[in-house]
Amino acid sequence: MSKFVDRPRYSCAMGGALGVLRAINRAIPILHTSAGCGSNLFGGMNNGSAYIGGGYCGGLALPSTNVIERDIVFGGDEHLREQIKTTLEVMDGDLYVVLTGCMVEMIGDDVDAVCSEYADADVPLIAVHTPSFQGDSLDGYDTLLSAFAKKLVPRGQETIPATVNILGIIPGQDVFWEGNLKELKRLLALIGVRANTLFGEGETIADIRRSGSAALNVVVSDTYGVRTAQEYEELHGIPFITTGLPIGITDTETFLCAVAAALGIAPEVVTQALAPERRTYYAYIERLADLYNDVDLQRYAIIVGDANYVPPISKFVADELGWIPRLAVITDQIKDDDVKDNLLARFRDYESAVAPDVRFNTDASSIKHYIAELFPQNHNDRYTDLYNQVVVIGSSIERGIADEYGYPLLTATFPVTNRLVFGRAYAGLNGALTLVEDLISAVISGR
Amino acid sequence: MDYLNSNAAPVREERLKTNIAFGGTAGELLECARSGCFGADGCLNQARRTFSQTIGCQFTLSLAVLYTMRKAVFVIHAPIGCGSQSVGSVGITQTLHKLRDERAEPLVWLSTNLDEADVITGGERKLRETVLFADAEFRPEAIIVCNTCVPSLIGDDLENIVNDLQTQVSATVVPVYCEGFKTKVMATAYDAIYHGVLKKYVRDPDRDKKLYESDLEKARREYLISRNVNILNVSSMSRADELEIQRLLTAIGLNVQFLPCYSEPEDFQYALESSLNVAICGTHDDYFVKHMQEKYGIPFIIDTIPIGRKNTARWLLKIAEHFELVDEARALIAYEDKLLDKALEPFRAELAEKTVFLGGGEVRVVGTAEIIQDLGMKIAGMKPHHFDEFIEPIFDVLEDIDGVPVDVATNQPFEQANLIRRIKPDLILSHTGGNNITAKYGVPILPIFGVSYNYMGYSGVYEVARRISRLLKNYQFNKRLSKNAPLPFKESWYEQDPFTYIAEI
Hints:
The complex is a heterodimer.
Chain A: E1 5-6, H1 13-23, E2 27-32, H2 37-48, H3 69-74, H4 77-90, E3 95-100, H5 102-107, H6 111-116, E4 125-129, H7 137-151, E5 163-167, H8 177-190, E6 194-196, H9 205-209, E7 216-219, H10 226-236, E8 240-242, H11 249-263, H12 267-294, E9 300-305, H13 310-319, E10 324-330, H14 337-345, E11 357-360, H15 366-374, E12 390-394, H16 399-405, E13 409-411, H17 428-443
Parallel strand pairs in A: 2-3, 3-4, 5-6, 5-7, 7-8, 9-10, 9-12, 10-11, 12-13
Chain B: H1 12-15, E1 21-25, H2 26-34, E2 48-49, H3 58-66, E3 72-77, H4 90-98, E4 109-111, H5 116-121, H6 124-138, E5 142-147, H7 149-154, H8 158-166, E6 172-177, H9 188-200, H10 215-227, E7 228-232, H11 239-251, E8 255-259, H12 267-270, E9 277-279, H13 282-296, E10 300-301, H14 309-323, H15 326-351, E11 355-360, H16 362-374, E12 378-384, H17 392-395, E13 405-409, H18 413-423, E14 427-430, H19 435-438, E15 445-447, H20 457-473, H21 476-484, H22 491-495, E16 502-503
Parallel strand pairs in B: 3-4, 3-5, 5-6, 7-8, 7-9, 9-10, 11-12, 11-14, 14-15
Antiparallel strand pairs in B: 1-13, 2-16
Helix pairs in contact in B: 3-9, 6-8, 9-13, 11-20, 14-15, 15-20
């Protein structure tokens, strides 16, 4: 049973699906839904994703039936049939995907039947059911990719050794999705593994189609992408591992070792591949030695956001940056206790032994209550160990808290509205260095 | 007009016979309007598209307006996706609120997060929990509850729930019925909001009554009211626009209060201590001002929008006539004209004969066209979101407009792309939202509105002129895009008539 959400950081299943389609070059969504859905979802996605933009066919260019009361009363099948026909006349794409909204699902339009009329068309057209009342945008990512695994990826492809698909990074919802995918692909190449990210720089629909030939699916998340990986396992016989999103040298090593083990690559290959990377990485980190120790740049941290980012950022700032994460709030709607346990496990065994209090709460207002609970309060005692050296790593929604307490804020999790992000990463090694740049810059902005 | 006994405002297709699909020239459109094509049985009232692209709904537009209103939190009674555009308002809303109140609180919205079980059993329990939580957690002056498609279809009795909740919370609970699927005319949103505001915000101010009031005090009180005017602002206006409007009206001796944007609930009580309501934009405000006249006897003016000098002068004179301040207004207008003319000289020389395409809200499009003509530029085409009676008076100040192509379309970038290829304008004035497409024509773009720029009054004309001049100096960004980022339309589409997909029901 779900509850209300105070300032949700995700949209609906259709929003998640639209994020993926936005990332696929020349994919044309056709929305079968009320007026407003496409405009609303893109408004949120464009602003919240540090400005992913409408791109080729997003934003107000999205084809949409814009159903109104008349369609609800009489059914929208004919309307959809007409819209598909005219969309094919006007819009130039390599893949057309019909996404359904709440209203047409409630009245039971037979969308699959209408779309099946295009089964033999030159350009693929598939239908995916994405009503909001059945899932949020984090679910929508899997709903769309599962549908691809089923309807777009040919079965019976021959397995190509040492190739993997990367799952678990949601375009738009992960503000650094494209940079993260690029960095993970680069890291895997270091150990001789070719990664198919399905979308990103240079990937096309052909890459999605050939994803059935991978030897392994690597899900870099404890929740997103798991359902898709299960679908691939069942339909295409591809096993999968879940690793979490790696940030920093320790995580990267663990990540590469896990992939290597699953593919039967010797662990020495990872050690050898990482040796020059480690030298470069620490050559950069070394630059900070002066400033960090000159002015005492250790901070307490509050980390707020989705299940992919909160665990690795917390661990990274503790074990590598030497900070003290005090509070970590995961804002997803997580119904499955096993998923919660897996996420909690990622906060154990810190080398620094300073793991934060971890809370699962969807509501933005909860942060303030946790601060009151966990942080020493000023009771006008002469001496109090107040945590006044705090950095908030969260979303633009945390601007309120940051302003109120006077804490610097680094916006890293959705929504990020005060920055523009192209292809930079927070994952892997280059991503970790970027994260350090941004964290320290947030602290020293007054210099 | 009195719709306040109903739960919800009527949709504009019904109330105003608003049209959202027309292709032709301005002359044809005006002729059509005058001969009744927009009437109940008219050919244009029910026009539609057989191919369409996404549009905002009355709910999404409602949020854009509601989020300007201070000291309220917003409850979205819907599945989780509705209103996700709010994440884009977090930062900018607080920034804009702080221009009016340094201590403004961050924007708070809550989703009742209806799921599959609620679709079957109803959303009442969640709505109650949400409103009670909002009241206890945030202690707002008002809780504004937006109703959306799903609870409307499953039959939640919002009116009853809200009335019952009102007995349990300290905030004023305001229902706004803005279900997206009810209408294709986004602008119905303004009526939906005002409907709630009229019922819940507008009431006599809670003042201590004096036991004794001297004649002098009474005369003073009444005199002040006789000089108070409510200006109905719009969420697309900037603070700079407000200051310019206020400057002009103060100059002829009036006291100005702006409503509804950036106001707080109490301001609507003081709105009753005023002698005139003036719409900045008829499309926004007719529902409010007509009810204010009907219910509280406050007269109103809906005429043109104060964008462009002739429109501004006309708008000022209408107000001045009401207060018998015409001489003062004429003197002001003459003075402002003289200063502006001198300031515009260099821009007129530079911009003469450039062609301009305008797209956006109907009133802004036609209003801003006056600035374009004033600067000696040519109107090459117009694309208003919709068309209704409020646009007609604004055409008056435009010259030689009959042959100009007009596409009545809420967004629909595919039609615009086809038109632009034919028209090849030197400059586009464009509404926010579709510029991933518009930029790729390789032409400079001036946003047709902006919450941080001045467009209105005399200073607005100058600001628009100098920004156009700046934009035309270098538009390499869009030019490069047009050569390197393709548009999504098939080449065959450009060979079709741009209005191919407009049809009657």
